[in-house]
Structures are given as C-alpha cells and as structure tokens.
Amino acid sequence: MSWLQENLKYVFLVLVCLQNAVYTLLRRYTRVTQTYSNSAVLAASEIVKLIFSAGMSLWGSNNNDGPKNVNEKLLWIVHGSWPMGVPAGIYATMNILSLISLGRIDAATFTVCAHMKVLSTALFSVLVLGRTLQPRQWRGLLLLALSAAL
After folding, report:
1. CA-to-CA distance for 95 and 48, rounded, in angstroms?
2. C-alpha to C-alpha distance for 28 and 19, rounded to whole angstroms
3. pTM above the 0.70 mark?
4. Is residue 17 scored above 80 in pLDDT?
5. Angle at 28 between CA 25 and CA 33, to 5 degrees
6. In degrees, to the nearest 5, what angle opens at C-alpha 18 toward C-alphas 12 and 21?
7. Count of Cβ atoms closer than 10 Å to residue 17 Cβ
8. Could you give the angle at which helices 107-127 and 8-33 cross, rounded to 10 degrees?
9. Span 17-42, mean pLDDT?
10. Best-predicted range by mean pLDDT among 58-62, 66-70, 113-117, 121-125?
11. What percentage of residues in the chain have a pLDDT greater than 90?
C-alpha cells in the first residue's frame, strides 16, 4: 500500500481546509475589488453544479439506478427530485445572503459564522427533533467550533 493510500483521509482533510479558506478569501477579495451581480454569480455556480451532477448521475460509475436510456433517466431524476425544491431554494437564498454579507464583513468573521451554522444545526436537531448524538459527534462539533474560533 502506497503512502497516498494510507494517508488519503488526511490529504483530503488538508485539501478541504485549503478549499474553504481560499474560497472565502477569493470571494471576499473579488467583492471588494470588483462589482458584479450576486444573482449572476449564483446562477453561474448553480449551472456548473447542475452540469456536473447531471453528468455524474447519467454517466457516473453507479448506473444501476433508474432507466438505462439517457433521456428517460434524466426525466426520472427530475421527477424524483422535486421534493428537494424547498431545501434547494433555502440553499440558494443562503448563498445570495453569504455573497452580500461577505461584501460587508471581513473574511475571518464570515468564516466563523459559516462554520457555526453546522454547530447550530446540530444543536437544533437535538433540541427540536429529539435526535441523540454520540460523544464522538459532540467532540467533533466542539473541535469544529474551536477551529472556527481560532
């Protein structure tokens, strides 16, 4: 087994951390230095995600789901995905608000707030939905909160 295979989870952890940091800093830099439409940025990013996810759904490695014909499979995906409209709308609204807020606050404050939404979601899932979290999950949430604060 190669070094990369043994340490793949750590490599991905570092890459995700870098991606989050660079993404926030680049968004903040462009908001301050350039003028552009929030809705145009959101539409472009959603179109890229749509093309990528449609390609993965239609031609990805797991082609056992649904019909085999590309057109029928696309219709099957659209028909089965309509309940996700509400969360998708909330997500789009959140992205617009994050673009607006990033233009008004510094990148560090934005990053802390963005990471704290995971902690607040977990807390509300326990308080409102009555879910239970394992001690390992609580430790992970505590580390997330501490890393966001640092």
Report:
1. 15
2. 14
3. no
4. no
5. 120
6. 140
7. 11
8. 120
9. 74
10. 121-125
11. 1
Give me the count of residues in the chain.
150
pLDDT for 77 beyond 80:
no
SS3 label, residue 133: coil
Structural tokens at position 63:
């082609």
Taking Cα atoms as reference points, which of 121, 110, 123, 119 lies closest to residue 140? 119
**Residue 35 belongs to what H/E stretch?**
none
d(C-alpha 75, C-alpha 51), whole Å: 15
Quickly count helices (H) and strands (E) in the chain: 7, 0
Mean pLDDT of 12-26: 76
Reduced to 3 states (helix: H, G, I; strand: E, B; else coil), residue 54 is helix
Nearest alpha-carbon partner for 67 in 49, 79, 82: 79
**pLDDT at site 66:** 66
Q: CA-to-CA distance for 103 and 26, rounded, in angstroms?
A: 12
